[in-house]
């Protein structure tokens, strides 16, 4: 069930006697692959069968995505013993074997018919989609489209075959969660659910506009891919000092939550600026300019003079490199270095995990939830949270 063919595969016509409409055939070199959803009674299974020639004899090799071997003991041996000269008779024998072990399930044929009907109606109604595709096992429908600002969005609508009502739900999406639980909605009507998502996309236009403005005019350290599903941006302010802006997607004119990452002297300086400037925040003003006024800066740094690491320790080059000075990496399991030495002559970056491991290996002191010891670079006192 899809509106786009397989890429890089050549679809082959099926045998007229073949009675599995959700199985497709395509070439893989000299072999033929039969893949898709096998219908056995009221049950469906995702399978793949390879047809190949060995010693001038046509053979079939079966595999599946539903772990039949775990569900039905002994079934694989019977499948291996199937002898057939064509895929139609092979498939009939396969269905007979699986049917013997089929657990009793409710009849989902009416649900499958509804899904197909909803999909066809949806495809006819929304003709300007970039992509519309249903998964072979009929577990979800993937949609790619553009909004009024020509931004591309993708959504995967899941299909719940265990219920007879409200079978469609939001499975995956590229937008931040909604406080009104719009993305928790379910519906028996595919168009109705999709229209709710379109309404949410329309509400998020100011949020998207602001993210695009930040991404285009700032040096964003995190998230690396700047996807719109993230409602925060960690933005560089000056050397080894950044701010994490956390926005309310549905109310971008409200003052964002600000968290600073850097030496204490700079954190204290900018926190003092915010206390002084916060009373001048204007919810009706231009948010990007409001952020600059709140932080007490004329503009965010945009492009570094040189993104490479300067060999001159006295260089005035804007340092955008955020590598940890212990592991010499930046991103580890999605975490950037967030501990910076307070010594103004050092100010090296460290992952808290790396620094904790370093401090634990030397003569350091633990107190409450922190560990304190000597900076690996300048040997001045440095501390970080204790890592469990």
Can you characterise this structure?
With 388 residues, the protein is an alpha+beta fold. The chain has nine helices and 19 strands. It has helices spanning 68-71, 75-80, 87-100, 109-125, 190-203, 205-217, 264-277, 287-295, 352-360; strands spanning 11-12, 23-28, 31-40, 43-54, 57-64, 131-134, 140-146, 152-159, 168-173, 186-187, 220-222, 232-238, 241-246, 257-261, 339-340, 349-350, 365-367, 370-374, 381-385. The strands form five sheets. The chain has a five-stranded antiparallel sheet with strand order 1-2-3-4-5. The two termini are 48 Å apart.
Shape: elongated
Low-pLDDT stretches are 1-8, 305-320
Number of continuous helical runs: 9
Compute the separation of the termini in Å.
48 Å
- Mean pLDDT across every amino acid position: 83
Q: Biggest sheet, strands in spatial order? A: 1-2-3-4-5
Q: How much β-strand is present in the residues?
A: 25-35%
Task: Please give a quick description of this structure.
The protein is an alpha+beta fold and 388 residues long. The chain is 26% helix and 27% strand. The longest helix is centred in the first third of the chain and has 17 residues, at 109-125.
